[in-house]
Specification:
Pfam families: ALO (PF04030), FAD_binding_4 (PF01565), GULLO2-like_3rd (PF22906)
Low-confidence stretches: 1-21
Cofactor: FAD
Strand order of the largest sheet: 20-14-16-15-23-24-22-25
Strand content: 15-25%
Structural class: alpha+beta
Number of helices: 13
Catalytic activity: L-gulono-1,4-lactone + O2 = L-ascorbate + H2O2 + H(+)
Keywords: Ascorbate biosynthesis, FAD, Flavoprotein, Oxidoreductase, Signal
Enzyme class: oxidoreductase
Shape: globular
Distance between the termini: 36 Å
Radius of gyration: 23 Å
Mean pLDDT: 93
Largest sheet: 8 strands, antiparallel
């Protein structure tokens, strides 16, 4: 998730002076695929993949119907091409959507951008079936117009229906079927390779009781092309939301009861500020007064000038090793967030708690995707030189999360100001998701921890307090066995993950059954699925391509050496030393 940054930009203008930029119309997110006579290049929404290498693909096709989608898969199968699917959006951080062999012309992309026309509501059976390319916001709005609600509510709406289930996107809930969208899937159509006699590709319809559904509903795009998704619905309802900004004392003992008490609970923890924010969020009858909405601050359209200024300010603080400057920004940010309720609005503005509104408007947001305001964009749009960051998301067994928080507090208490860098983004966001039957889903009731932090413009530049975030990261994934969110994280988070999924072998069996020639696999997706560490090289630990074991994996010339963790002693992190030598 991302924080509200225009206020910080205003501080930058005060401290460092103005940034010159010609006023322009609103910049909507660019298409993820750019093509020219030499071929196509696939980007994610941040403009840079984890390895900073471009994804080149010879060609792309844009089907508009399920049959055209099937024909595209058939063409790829008949011609022995590697295939990956992309949508209108591209918010996956790992390189899951990049196919192999671009240099040999043996790959192609299939886009669902134009395959987005069908949303069929079955009110009698409380279900909706949508084309895979339908955007999440379009689906939610159509469902709400029919007097129904989709219960799981991911926080970011810049995803397609096919994409939202493929990588395990979720909201927050331990109630009912839980907060993960894939746990509300009751059927889907999957296009897979077939024999010549079957036309080289076929559509298989996977129902609620079909064992293949547990493999297909979180598949990372590695089983075939999802063409239609059927989701369960409930009668329409409203939600009542309030935030409680309070001290973080006993957060490690409170979080469990909080998740059980409120249907859509979450917690945001600002460790450097010793502040925890508890979201009191539950459903109320449709007759309840209120027409509020949640327009998350970080997903609102930001001034391009301010986004650039904010990035410039953060870079200056990094280069000056100015921890106190980051802490001043963190204090201001958290205070302002409290003032405006993080984007909750009773009407046009926030006027007080609780804020009551329809389910479809109270969680999922992303207004920067559609803004028409002059000089605005999403703050991380790579074309403007705005925000640039890492996003670590770890999924913990619920019973282990309290001990993790205790360890992080121990690390925080050694030097609280070292945590200010995460608090000027969105602190630690804590969410709740229920045990899933999906083979690549969470196998027990779980806690999801999500945090953002500064990323340098080039891969050889170390970061202020880099060792802190590396220790937290390794503590999460290796000491406490957290699973990585499939669509986020640096590559090291995926190391040795097979044993974390009890049904991993079942997923591989389904993969072999549906895609025996590995048409939908690639070097990049295999690297994630099988948890392969990159070849260790100079500086590889700076961006999470490896865990350091020698100083050379950090940046000794810039004063960063491979050291043990301060609390989690088994961690190996790149720590700054002011001495000229280690």
């Amino acid at each position: 998730m991302f924080s509200f940054r225009w206020l910080l930009g205003a501080l930058h203008l005060t401290i460092w002076g103005p940034v010159t930029l010609t006023m322009t119309h609103a910049m909507l997110p660019p298409p993820p695929v750019q093509c020219n006579d030499a071929g196509c290049t696939l980007y994610n929404s941040y403009g840079v993949w984890n390895d900073r290498k471009d994804c080149h693909v010879p060609s792309i096709t844009y089907p508009t119907t399920e049959e055209e989608l099937r024909l595209a898969v058939a063409h790829a199968n008949q011609n022995n091409l590697k295939v990956k699917v992309v949508s209108r959006f591209s918010h996956t951080i790992p390189k899951l959507a990049c196919p192999d062999d671009a240099q040999h012309g043996n790959s192609m992309l299939i886009s669902t951008l134009k395959y987005n026309s069908s949303i069929e509501i079955d009110a009698a059976n409380l279900a909706v079936t949508a084309d895979a390319g339908v955007g999440l916001r379009e689906l939610i709005d159509e469902v709400e117009r029919s007097g129904l609600s989709l219960v799981p509510a991911p926080y970011w709406e810049g995803v397609s229906v096919g994409g939202v289930i493929s990588t395990g996107a979720h909201g927050s809930s331990w109630w009912g079927k839980g907060g993960a969208v894939h746990d509300h899937v009751i059927g889907l159509n999957l296009i897979v390779p077939a024999r010549e006699s079957e036309g080289y590709a076929k559509i298989i319809r996977i129902g609620a009781k079909d064992p293949l559904l547990n493999a297909a509903k979180v598949s990372l795009g590695m089983l075939g092309v999802i063409s239609k998704v059927k989701l369960s619905l409930e009668p329409a309802f409203k939600r009542s939301v309030a935030y409680n900004f309070t001290d973080d004392a006993h957060i490690e003992d409170i979080f469990m009861d909080h998740g059980k008490k409120y249907e859509f609970a979450d917690v945001t923890w600002y460790p450097s500020r010793h502040t925890a924010v508890y979201r009191y969020d539950y459903r109320v009858p449709l007759s309840t007064s209120g027409n509020g909405e949640y327009d998350f601050l970080g997903f609102q359209p930001n001034s391009i000038v301010v986004s650039k200024a904010t990035r410039s300010s953060e870079k200056l603080l990094e280069s000056a090793r100015n921890v106190n400057g980051k802490c001043a920004l963190a204090t201001t940010f958290v205070g302002f967030k409290k003032l405006v309720a993080n984007g909750l609005k009773n009407g046009l503005i926030f006027t007080g708690y609780p804020v009551v509104g329809h389910q479809g408007k109270m969680q999922t947001s992303g207004s920067c995707l559609y803004s028409t305001k002059i000089d605005t964009s999403c703050a991380w749009d790579p074309r403007i030189g705005g925000l640039f960051f890492y996003e670590t998301t770890a999924i913990f067994p619920a019973l282990k999360f309290g001990d993790f928080l205790r360890d992080v507090k121990k690390l925080r208490d050694l030097k609280p100001e070292n945590f200010c860098g995460v608090d000027i983004y969105n602190g630690f966001l804590i969410r709740f998701i229920k045990a899933s039957q999906a083979y690549l889903g969470q196998s027990e009731d779980s806690i999801v921890l999500d945090y953002n932090y500064y990323r340098a413009d080039d891969s050889s530049t170390p970061r202020l307090n880099q060792d802190v975030w590396e220790e937290v990261e390794q503590m999460a994934f290796f000491k406490y066995g957290a699973k990585p969110h499939w669509a986020k994280n640096r590559n090291l988070a995926f190391l040795d993950l097979q044993h974390k999924y009890p049904n991993f072998i079942k997923f591989l069996a389904a993969k072999k059954q549906l895609d025996p020639k590995n048409m939908f696999s690639s070097e990049w997706s295999d690297e994630i699925l099988y948890g392969k560490e990159a070849v260790k090289a100079d500086g590889c630990a700076l961006e999470g391509q490896c865990i350091c074991s020698e100083d050379i994996h950090c940046s000794p010339k810039k004063g960063y050496f491979c050291e043990r963790g301060l609390v989690y002693k088994e961690a190996r992190v790149c720590r700054y030393s002011s001495s000229a030598t280690k």
